[in-house]
Amino acid sequence: MKKIIYAAMLFGIAITTGCDDLLDVKPGSELTDDGFWKSENDFKGACNKLYCDLSGWSNDTRTDELARNGAIDAISSGSRTTAPGASEDDWTNPYNRIYAANNIIEKGADAPLAEATRNRWIAEAYFFRAYHYFDLVKKYGDVPLVLKNFTSTGDEGLKMGRTPRETVIQQCYEDLRFAAQWLPKHSSLPTTEFDRRRASRSSALGLTVRIGLYEGTFQKYHNVNGGANANGHLDKSIEAFEALKAEGHDLYPDFNDVFSYKNEANTNKEIIFGKAYGANDFTTVTTGHVHTRNLEGVYALTRNALDQFLYADGLPIDKTALKVDVETSYNNVAGLDKDGQPLAGGKGQRDPRLLKTIWTINDPLENDDFVGWIKTGKGKYYPFDSQRPKAYPVKKAFFGSLWEQSVNNKDFTDKIIIRYAEMLISYAEALYERDGSISNPVLDETVNKIRARAGFNVKLTNEFVTAHGLSLRDEIRRERTVELMAEGFRYDDIIRWKIAETVLPVSIIGPICIADEMQNPSLYSDFTGRITDGTGKIGGTFYYGQAGAYVIEFGNTRTFNPNRDYLYPIPTFEIAQSDFNIVQNPNWNNE
User: Fold this and answer.
1) N or C terminus of the chain with fewer C-beta within 10 Å?
2) pTM to 2 decimal places
3) Where are the beta strands (DSSP E) in 247-385?
4) Which of 277, 275, 279, 283 is nearest to 45 (CA)?
């Protein structure tokens, strides 16, 4: 940690009106921020750095949800078995960003500004400090809680050990309490390209909802201190949501457009916090401020993920009568034939969000201008092209509508980090986990409201669950998984629910491959060692209940050690730099 904090000490002060590092240099090459921190514009410019450092669009392959072209994810497969020696971005990046936030908080205390003005910008720093500490706790558990910047490399704080996760999370709540008090309301944010995505009171409340749910369920299912503090965290989540309801957010009317270019305006009330892309008021922020469109060509959804979608009768795949017994087309997963028409008798019909999440063969939205790269349409599927993942191409958050604004396969659609649908389903889950029950009116306010927005009008009720032998807890979790699919929530969810040891060490299944639907049928024989036969088997071993299912990864190659893998290993460099005051997570010692 010493190396990281020293670097931040030198460069954390170098935050001006954008993402560039501009320092005053005194004789002798002394780095200083003397003369800064005098005006509101100084603080706003410093806070801009916090937004620049937010992670951009990414695709989380750590679970059973997404497959990518090429390398297998080491966390998902369990092939990561030793702690890294050198420090890693998962550790260093959050700390560098925390130090930048600490610098703003410290310098803001004495700034010659009115209290409300000063605290408005300090509140942004508090929000980001909580955001990054939560990221660290999710991965590492106990982590050093650093609430100040260091002025000397000899400061003993550089060698501090790990702070209990409960203490760190309580600090997150305190930071977010301050942020919620002093940040502006979301409805009062400016409409300019960058400022419309600044943190608001809603952002602080939304992050509190997320943290409280995570920590409450983590402590409950991992039996942290016997789960004694679990309900206290769930209370935090519930209280934050009830405050958030007064902030004027709602679901965007059309599920298709939640992630589209339409979120560029500040009129999408579903977006609570996000990262703005594209042209804005700060030239230095614009540089590199676009995201690549790799979701379409490099990452794709597995059959494991798609089997989470309910059928049109509201029942899961293991209970419905609508399941297609023998799939004869790639499209059958969505209840369509090869031509994109509904199957007879309603067979295979699913929650409408499935068709809004993946591309199908002959998809009516596909055309050569926007989606030629995906290559699922025009009557063919291209699963074995060397440049494409062997799974179901993702339509959700596809940015083709901005093709004309793209530059070198890039565009400016904002990244949504917190949205209201997540808050609704989080509220339902937190209530159920705390109370062991949930009323039908609350289900209507949360789960069923989300379903109705997508055109799925089968309601989840206590009576429906009882009549069909379902688990209400599992159905609330399913709703979360489906609504937030491919948005980066799956790993955190299976970790806090303590089901990773069940979910991850299984075979990862790709699409149903039909020879005459593939771009080059001659390639089919090259993959027979991964294609199931008529009994769902390969070489006598059962893998999936359909013929032609492509096995991306075989279950016997995947592992998950529940005594080790629920936490990340701490880089041994950081342990050594602390004079071994930082202790490695259980069973990650390199011996």
Assistant:
1) C
2) 0.91
3) 271-275, 291-292, 299-301
4) 283
